[in-house]
Structure to design on (284 residues):
């Protein structure tokens, strides 16, 4: 069995606000295999971003463990923590570009922190801008780019340190349908060509359907369903899953297409635990 890219074991997270503790993640366990595009889907407030932030320890779990490439990173600090974060790129809904830096300088910023030389930084940033289709925008300012272009810059910047994992938190939520699809296609190409494992946080089933191979449904801080995307769309089990499917017209259409494509002899794996699904199956 391959070593998991990310394994979360029995993770809980509480926040204390005005002296009162509220548990936003409860006993979450899931396994992301190398090469997965693993979707975490749930309603607003379900705990998706908190879970993603526990992977690179922007949030510290209250209980449980986080393993990255087989290593228990839960209590990492100092140099170990910086190295861990360099191995994990992160992209957000609102791009988070530096307005006072050119596109090229945004992309090379993580390499400045690492004290790479100016020429090496420039070459790597150019290479990444080519990868995301923005070679001609190197000297532009973020304000001169469309939302989709800005997200491409953010993706390029997240790749600067050659991460093996990318955390994508609602990266298409601010974009229109066509731009969303082109950004998702870009993420899939990065996954395939560079072998980057992706954790994709979303509230939209259509996003899961377009790029993910595995998915976990989070509801009020708990994982209520995990499995392959094909299984989830064909046989949604949890009420929360069905509700998310209903809420997303594009995905609902996909469900109908999935059902129509199924033949009577088609075999379907039963719902299985993420622990076993994670390491062994690659369905794309
Ligand atoms: N730093 C914090 N302090 C206190 N409560 C927090 C903090 N961060 C998140 N929460 C709470 O944790 C819960 C989960 O938040 P989280 O941002 O993880 O949800 P989400 O699923 O990403 O939602 P959305 O889809 O709206 O982004 C929410 O009730 C939120 O108010
Ligand atoms: Mg969120």
């Amino acid at each position: 069995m391959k070593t998991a890219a990310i394994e979360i074991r029995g993770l809980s997270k509480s926040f204390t606000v005005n002296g009162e503790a509220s548990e936003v993640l409860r006993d979450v366990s899931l396994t992301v295999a190398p090469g997965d595009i693993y979707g975490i889907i749930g309603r607003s407030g379900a705990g998706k971003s908190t879970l993603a932030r526990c992977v690179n320890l922007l949030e510290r779990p209250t209980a449980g463990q986080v393993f990255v490439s087989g290593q228990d990173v839960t209590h990492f600090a100092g140099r170990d923590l910086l190295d861990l974060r360099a191995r994990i790129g992160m992209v957000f809904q609102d791009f988070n570009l530096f307005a006072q830096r050119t596109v090229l300088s945004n992309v090379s910023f993580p390499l400045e922190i690492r004290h790479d030389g100016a020429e090496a930084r420039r070459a790597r940033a150019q290479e990444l801008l080519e990868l995301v289709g923005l070679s001609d925008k190197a000297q532009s300012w973020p304000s001169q780019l469309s939302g989709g272009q800005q997200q491409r810059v953010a993706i390029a910047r997240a790749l600067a340190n050659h991460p093996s994992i990318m955390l994508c938190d609602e990266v298409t939520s601010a974009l229109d349908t066509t731009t969303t699809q082109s950004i998702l296609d870009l993420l899939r190409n990065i996954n395939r060509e560079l072998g980057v494992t992706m954790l994709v946080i979303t509230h939209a089933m259509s996003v899961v359907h377009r790029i993910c191979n595995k998915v976990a449904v989070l509801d009020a801080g708990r994982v209520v369903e995990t499995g392959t995307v094909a299984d989830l769309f064909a046989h949604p089990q949890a009420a929360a899953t069905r509700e998310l499917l209903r809420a997303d017209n594009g995905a609902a259409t996909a469900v109908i297409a999935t059902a129509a494509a199924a033949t009577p002899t088609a075999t379907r794996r039963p719902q299985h635990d993420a622990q076993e699904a994670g390491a062994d199956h690659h369905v794309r």
